[in-house]
Automatic annotation (TrEMBL):
Protein name: Serpin domain-containing protein
Membership in a protein family: Belongs to the serpin family.
All residue ranges annotated as the Serpin domain in the record: 1-205
Origin organism lineage: Eukaryota, Viridiplantae, Streptophyta, Embryophyta, Tracheophyta
Annotated SMART domains: SERPIN (SM00093)
Native source organism of the sequence: Urochloa decumbens
InterPro entries according to UniProt: Serpin_CS (IPR023795), Serpin_dom (IPR023796), Serpin_fam (IPR000215), Serpin_sf (IPR036186), Serpin_sf_1 (IPR042178)
Source organism superkingdom: Eukaryota
Pfam families xref list: Serpin (PF00079)
Length: 208
């Protein structure tokens, strides 16, 4: 997790301590007011570093400006291999049946997934900022970007708001056909607790 605060504001030390102890997040001062583009570049660099370059340019031009007071960021990265890898020579493209009467040609690789969900609830900023001129601060936007790549070797997943792989432990001489030719849900779960780390759906691979 990362916290970026405009240099003109005073961060509540209790909030900074909680962020550091509970989320291993260091609060950084940036000049949203004087140089928002430099601040945006710093945050995007953090996402690239935390996700191995998979989450890139989450904050687009104009997403932060002189009115931005605080940016809270979170990232998640997962790289796992199948217990029994698939044979690339047996993997092939095919039709993906979006509905019983409609099919599209689909690549065997999943594509980037994205979500942009803006909302404006009222918020009390006193727990985060001291003596802030933004007494009626509100959440202006929440951006989320997720990347999931599934291939014959395994799965790479990364998310920015910014597991255990479900494989078949069959004997080597037992070949199982995995055919993803219709809409499906997928989950990446942590084996010990069963906690869902990533969840997604593919309805039409040409639209993702």
């Amino acid at each position: 997790m990362g916290v970026w605060v405009d240099a003109a504001l005073r961060l509540n030390l209790a909030f900074a301590d909680a962020a550091a102890s509970e989320f291993k997040a260091a609060a950084r001062a940036v000049a949203f007011g004087d140089d928002p583009d430099a601040a945006r570049a710093e945050i995007n660099d953090w996402f690239r570093s935390e996700t191995g370059g998979l989450v890139d340019n989450l904050l687009t031009e104009g997403s932060v400006d002189g009115t931005t007071a605080v940016v809270l960021a979170n990232s998640l990265y997962f790289n796992g291999y199948w217990y029994n890898p698939f044979f690339p020579r047996l993997t092939q493209d095919g039709d993906f049946h979006v509905s019983p009467d409609h099919a599209v040609e689909a690549s065997r690789l999943l594509r980037d997934l994205g979500l942009d969900l803006p909302f404006r609830p009222a918020a009390d900023s006193s727990a985060m900022l001291l003596g802030s001129p933004h007494q009626e601060m509100a959440v202006s936007s929440v951006l989320h970007q997720c990347f999931v790549n599934v291939n014959e070797k395994g799965t790479v997943a990364a998310a920015g708001t910014v597991g255990s792989i479900m494989g078949c432990a069959m004997p080597d001489d037992h070949i199982v056909d995995f055919v993803a030719d219709h809409p499906f849900l997928f989950f990446i779960m942590e084996g010990g607790s069963g906690l869902v780390v990533f969840a997604g759906q593919v309805v039409n691979p040409l639209l993702h």
